[in-house]
Amino acid sequence: MKHKSMFIVMFSAILSFSMSLHAWAGRPMEEIKETTDKIISIVSDPSLKDPAKEAERRALIRKAVDEICDWDEMSRRSLGRYWAQRTDREKKEFVELFGELIERTYIDKVEGYSGEKVNYLGEKIDGDYADVDVRVVTAKNTEVPVIYKMRKKDGRWWVYDLVIEGVSFVQNYRTQFYDMLTNSSYQDVVKKLKEKIEEKPQK
To answer: How far is the C-alpha of 196 from the C-alpha of 69, rounded, in Å?
Structure first.
């Protein structure tokens, strides 16, 4: 599954979690549910559906997603061995660009949420790391396996990767960045990211 489809499933899953959580779910699931409630409230708010409210609505969605996604860790893992070669300023810029890329590419999919359901299968916690295993049931009644990989930081659980149908979101991006850096400079990669961010998201 391509990275775009992966994040469509990710956001659909996030928006659906409140429908399938069990009372005995642990902290990783609880952290996701807290964010889920905020996102559902935003996309369901009639006062934010006006096209004139698009910027405000998307800013609120991004803020809610920021509360569950560890962009620093996701960016570090996605850039892989090239991360250590970057200066502090470059790392900060990359994290910001990476988050902006996800926002511009995928938030329109969140706004088009149509009630996909999620079956919660369980979670495995190993110290400061956890895997949350779910199945996303699509409108065509097919199941998509999703594993949320989370880590505990500052007393909270954060998503740093997703494995969808056996494909890691982080690994998917790492492969793309490695291919780009094999043939281009890091500065060229940053330029391409900025150009991609400026493109109109595909519906």
So the answer is: 21
pLDDT tier for residue 4 given thresholds of 50, 70 and 90:
very low
Tokens 């690994």 belong to which residue?
A: 171
Q: How confident is the model at residue 19 (pLDDT cuts 50, 70, 90)?
A: very low
Domain boundary assignment for the chain: 3-198
Question: Exposure pattern of 153-180 as b/e (b: 16+ CB <10 Å)?
Answer: eeebbbbbbbbbeeebbbebbbeebeeb
Range name among 33-47, 51-65, 93-107 with the lowest pLDDT average: 33-47
Fold of 3-198: Nuclear Transport Factor 2; Chain: A, (3.10.450)
- Please give the sequence-ordered ranges of beta strands (E in DSSP) within 7-140, or none if there are none: 117-126, 129-137
State CA 11 to chain mean position distance: 7
Q: How far from 21 is each of 14, 17, 127, 164, CA to CA, in Å?
A: 11, 6, 22, 19
Tens digit of each residue's pLDDT (9 = 90 or more) over 73-105:
999 999 999 999 999 999 999 999 988 887 776
Contacts within 8 Å (CB) and 24+ apart, 74-78: 74/98, 74/159, 74/160, 74/161, 74/170, 75/99, 77/160, 77/161, 77/170, 77/174, 78/170, 78/173, 78/174, 78/177
Alpha-carbon distance of 90 to 95, in angstroms, equals: 9
